[in-house]
Amino acid sequence: MATTLKRYSSSALSRNSKAVFDDAQETPVVIERRDGEDLILAPASEVEKEREFFALAAHLVAIAVSDDNSTFIQRLEAPFPWITLLTGTERHLFAQEIVEQARAAFSIRAPHPLLRTIAQWQATAEGHAAGVTNDSITIDFDSATQVERPA
Asked: What are the distances in angstroms from CA 46 to CA 26, 52, 70, 141?
């Protein structure tokens, strides 16, 4: 289902820029121009995420259609060199998860879940590099600490 973007005339932008900018912070808005092509006003961070998303899509397509003799996981090492820090099982899970997330994200043009998944896996690799292992993380759920309610 396509989302309809809110539309403003360029004169509405001139007359009430605060309202237009406030709306553009929430979701991109279309600025309609009489003398040229309409423009889209969006937060720069969203535009950058979209650029990152399409660059990632290009990498994944190139990896998927590569005709060299390496495995898919080996080919993932080019755009994601940090996956060499993951265990073998984690690399397989990463490969599986990135394909599933990519298919879903590309189908709805929503980069956030895929980018978040990659960031989480990268954080896992960074944890391994810092010496953190599953065995070194212990949480004692039996010893509760009483905290004061904030005022």
From this structure: 10, 10, 35, 39
Look at residue 80 and tell me whether its pLDDT is greater than 90: yes
Structure tokens at 63: 């990896």
Please report which helix (H) or strand (E) contains residue 39, including its range. Answer: strand 39-41
Cβ partners under 8 Å of residue 91, min gap 6: 73, 76, 83
Domains of the chain are 6-42 (3.40.1620.10), 45-132 (no CATH)
Question: CA-CA distance, 8 to 106, in Å (whole number)?
Answer: 28
| Distance between CA atoms of residues 73 and 95, nearest Å | 6
- Average pLDDT of the chain, as a whole number: 87
- Tokens 């932008």 belong to 13
**pLDDT band per the 50, 70, 90 thresholds, residue 136:** low
Question: Model pTM greater than 0.70?
Answer: no
